[in-house]
Specification:
Number of domains: 3
Largest sheet: 5 strands, antiparallel
Helix content: 25-40%
Radius of gyration: 22 Å
Number of strands: 9
Structural class: alpha+beta
Length: 322
């Protein structure tokens, strides 16, 4: 995959992308990541007339265009955020650094739900809908959100001063005790303003806030399932923030093993999701992510059905990363 930004307007960018088949695409990417134009002369214009592989090649070009704008110009153009390889890896690192008790606090509901299939002593956290075609036809989901601990960044002194100006308490005890359910005691406007001010400071200084990245919250456990007619349904979830999640853990029914092993498995799943993000942009993943195993569910389905891809979820796959 190759790309070049040919022009910038007051709305976004015009790119030329050459895909892995040598096909040239002209793609417009707005500042918010929306694709507002896409021209190419190899594949049928309408998705319904393209082959499955043709559709995937077109989608690869679009994803790569969005990622290229992010890499070259810094705009948040990868949509949805949960397929952004850097965000996914930040979530992976954040989860790997959790203590076992912290991991259970965030993901214990998912763990115990999976355990309930084989362990009669583990109670089911959520009931399987009666419309599900079978108890095994379920994908369990947890959305994960990143946050920044400003005191762990290179701007810790500036962050403390910004917080003081907004009347905010950055002490660990106060932050750990905060809850979005206590809206009357949490100054959300103050926190939002301080976060933006710190972000602007880091941008102006070409600084890095990544050292302060941490798991800020997770959704409640929810699921996607198929009914008897093969139609997909998704149950409701309670989300900690009014924004798109940075990652989604989406697992089929499986034996999670002991909690510590499950934490390692979630780490591996997210590493595979990073791999999937690069693969589905038509790119070879960086060396640490040239691994096999289950990552993103949609990607796994594509690997099973499209000849253009090795089956990256199969640990015995010989075509991968040759």
């Amino acid at each position: 995959m190759k790309a070049d930004i040919k022009k910038e307007t007051d709305r976004g960018f015009g790119l030329q992308v050459v895909d892995n088949n040598g096909v040239e695409h002209k793609i417009g990417v707005l500042y918010d990541g929306e694709i507002n134009s896409h021209l190419q002369n190899k594949y049928p214009d309408k998705a319904a007339k393209r082959s499955d592989e043709g559709n995937e090649n077109v989608e690869q070009a679009r994803r790569f265009a969005q990622y290229y704008v992010y890499c070259e110009r810094g705009y948040d153009t990868v949509k949805p955020p949960r397929i952004h390889p850097e965000r996914l890896n930040a979530v992976r690192v954040g989860i790997a650094e959790l203590t076992e008790s912290e991991f259970e606090q965030h993901f214990g509901d998912l763990y115990h739900q999976l355990r309930s299939y084989d362990d009669s002593n583990s109670d089911r956290v959520v009931e399987i809908p009666s419309a599900a075609s079978s108890p095994d036809s379920v994908l369990y989901r947890k959305n994960v959100y990143l946050g920044v601990d400003p005191l762990e960044t290179e701007f810790s002194e500036e962050a403390a001063a910004i917080a003081a100006r907004h009347g905010l308490d950055l002490s660990p005890d106060r932050i750990d005790s905060m809850s979005l359910e206590d809206g009357d005691t949490v100054d959300l406007d103050g926190w939002t303003a301080a976060s933006r001010e710190l972000g602007a400071l880091a941008d102006a200084a070409d600084g890095d806030l990544s050292d302060g990245l941490q798991i800020a919250g997770v959704s409640s456990l929810h699921m996607a399932y198929l009914d008897g007619r093969g139609e997909e349904h998704v149950t409701d979830a309670s989300e900690p923030f009014d924004r798109e999640p940075d990652a989604r853990i989406e697992l089929p029914v499986m034996d999670p093993g002991p909690l510590a092993e499950f934490q390692e498995y979630v780490n591996h799943n997210l590493a595979c999701q990073v791999r999937d993000a690069f693969i589905r942009m038509g790119l070879e993943p960086p060396e640490p992510f040239r691994i096999l195993g289950y990552g993103d569910f949609e990607a796994a389905e594509q690997y099973k059905t499209l000849e253009m891809y090795p089956n990256y979820i199969d640990p015995a796959e010989e075509r991968a990363f040759c």
